[in-house]
Write a structure and sequence with these properties.
The chain contains nine helices and 20 strands. It is of the alpha+beta class. Strands 6-7-12-10-11 form a five-stranded antiparallel β-sheet. It has a four-stranded mixed β-sheet with strand order 1-2-5-3. A four-stranded antiparallel β-sheet has the order 13-19-18-17, with helices on one face. A hairpin with a 4-residue loop joins β15 and β16. The structure holds uridine-diphosphate-2(N-acetylglucosaminyl) butyric acid.
């Protein structure tokens, strides 16, 4: 386990921001991780996985620890279900592909989500009608305060839309994740608009899990920029949830406002629509901007700094507040 000083994090964040860490190391086992935590004297310790949901806005004075613990296995629970154990450092999409190859269903809608498996529970990743919590059973967690490992059940994780205990309490490091997936007779989720449309277009009448994965991959590739080509962190903001009265008021001026009913009283509004309506879609300033196909995604055209992107995001939040009286919350984690 090597500690490198003055290390550029450009290849460790999908925004492609060239920020420096005073110290950097990569750990590939729990033993190494526990050792570095107990021996390194830096007050500031920042843990990163795939770096796909962070925006680094400063030079990091302390130590950055890259979590690279790998491994994936499954065991059959009964005829219908298997339990898959995925270590935190496994790339999420590679883990999805592994499950598809082993004919295990339940996460095909979550294909091509960037990042590592250890980050998946933090924001309860979700796409095309499925969230991690739908298949999650437990995860193994290291408590930085005690350097002890324990198992968190689904209830312990307090999952909500793009939220969990791990967003609120930064002392927990996820080491591995257990999912309950189906062996057979999997009920596919194809009701999310564009999945169905694509299946019809391709003439697929009886889709299998691999078909759903292919379709989702295609949709994502069409809409979302590939971080290898254009720096980004996926959705920069969460979709806001507003109450019925607010929605009725907004409909007076914006009769076409899209909305998804969550309960009698609350409605989710696509932040992408709000940002597009406010005129930001495709807008570029210097080396940062809003993506041309998906207004929820901020992009780095090359040499943007984290500070510039953060400042830009604040101006978007301000505009949305002014025009719609809606507070946009950040989805990415600011470092
Ligand atoms: N929309 C626009 N303009 C845009 C983008 C979106 O008007 O530029 C409106 C349209 O009405 C569209 C609706 O927003 O029908 C929904 O758009 P989309 O299906 O692209 O989904 P989203 O709500 O913008 C969420 C997730 C994505 C996930 C997709 C698909 C959040 C914050 N984002 O985006 O997750 O892939 O649904 O399920 O919930 C991510 O978290 O990084 C991410 C990409």
């Amino acid at each position: 386990m090597n500690i490198v000083t003055n290390f550029s994090l450009i290849n460790y964040n999908t925004f492609g921001v060239d920020a420096t860490a005073n110290q950097f190391t990569s750990v590939s086992s729990i033993k190494e991780l526990k050792k570095i935590i107990s021996t390194n004297e830096s007050k500031e310790k920042i843990f990163i996985g795939g770096g796909s949901n962070i925006l680094i806005t400063k030079k990091i004075e302390g130590l950055v620890i890259h979590l690279n613990i790998k491994g994936i296995s499954s065991k059959k629970l009964d005829n219908n279900y298997s339990e898959v154990n995925i270590k935190a450092g496994e790339n999420w999409n590679e883990a999805v592909k592994w499950c598809l190859k082993n004919n295990l269903g339940g996460i095909e809608n979550l294909s091509l989500i960037p990042g590592n498996t250890g980050a998946a529970p933090i924001q309860n990743i979700g796409a095309y009608g499925v969230e991690l919590k739908d298949v999650f059973t437990s995860c193994e967690v290291l408590d930085l305060k005690t350097n002890e490992i324990s198992e968190f059940s689904k209830e312990d994780c307090q999952f909500e839309y793009r939220n969990s205990i791990f967003k609120k309490n930064r002392n927990y490091i996820i080491l591995s994740v257990k999912l309950k997936l189906t062996n057979t007779n999997h009920k596919l989720k194809i009701d999310y608009g564009s999945i169905n449309e694509k299946l019809v277009l391709l003439g697929i009448e009886n889709p299998k899990i691999a078909d759903i994965a292919n379709v989702v991959t295609q949709i994502r590739k069409e809409k979302l920029p590939d971080p290898k080509k254009l720096g980004n962190s996926g959705s920069f903001f969460k979709n806001p949830i507003i109450n019925k009265r607010q929605l009725e008021q907004l409909k007076i001026n914006f009769c076409d406002i899209p909305n998804y009913k969550i309960s009698e009283e609350s409605y989710k509004i696509p932040a992408g629509w709000l940002i597009e309506k406010a005129g930001f879609k495709g807008k570029r300033i210097k080396d940062y901007g809003v993506h041309k196909n998906q207004a929820l995604v901020l992009v780095n055209y090359g040499n943007a700094t984290g500070k510039e992107i953060l400042k830009f995001s604040l101006s978007i939040q301000k505009a949305i507040k002014f025009i719609f009286n809606i507070e946009l919350e950040l989805e990415v984690n600011i470092i």
